[in-house]
């Protein structure tokens, strides 16, 4: 009888959780709620830089970026500074893309180092790491 009652309660808790009526599966099952670790990474929207070359042709460079911070206070400050970080990253990318020669492969190590400097400047301290995703030049 006890097993049947536990199964019924577990099924009821699962249904309530799926319906959004129960706060968490751990509380629904009668256990203690597990503390979730604070996020250590967030992705920024894709950054695009347009550059007009000397010969008048336009080029576009697109880059995916993200920020990683182990310290919750730094992470919170970085998330709050997202618009300023995007503006700084866009400036770095526009400056770099405008000097990129036609057919040249972008130097992502250099771009990453410049974006890291911009991140440290915007946040006012170290502790957040810039991560680069895919890069595309058209």
TrEMBL record:
Keywords: Signal
Residues of the signal peptide: 1-28
UniProt key word Signal: yes
Protein name: Tat pathway signal protein
């Amino acid at each position: 009888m006890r097993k049947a009652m536990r199964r019924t309660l577990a099924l009821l808790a699962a249904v309530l959780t799926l319906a959004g009526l129960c706060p968490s599966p751990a509380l629904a099952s009668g256990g203690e709620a597990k503390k979730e670790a604070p996020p250590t990474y967030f992705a920024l929207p894709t950054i695009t830089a347009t550059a007009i070359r000397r010969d008048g042709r336009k080029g576009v460079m697109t880059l995916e970026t993200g920020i990683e911070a182990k310290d919750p206070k730094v992470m919170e400050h970085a998330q709050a500074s997202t618009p300023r970080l995007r503006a700084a990253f866009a400036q770095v990318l526009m400056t770099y893309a405008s000097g990129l020669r036609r057919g040249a492969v972008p130097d992502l190590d250099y771009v990453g180092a410049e974006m890291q400097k911009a991140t440290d400047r915007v946040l006012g301290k170290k502790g957040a790491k810039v991560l680069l995703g895919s890069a595309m030049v058209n």
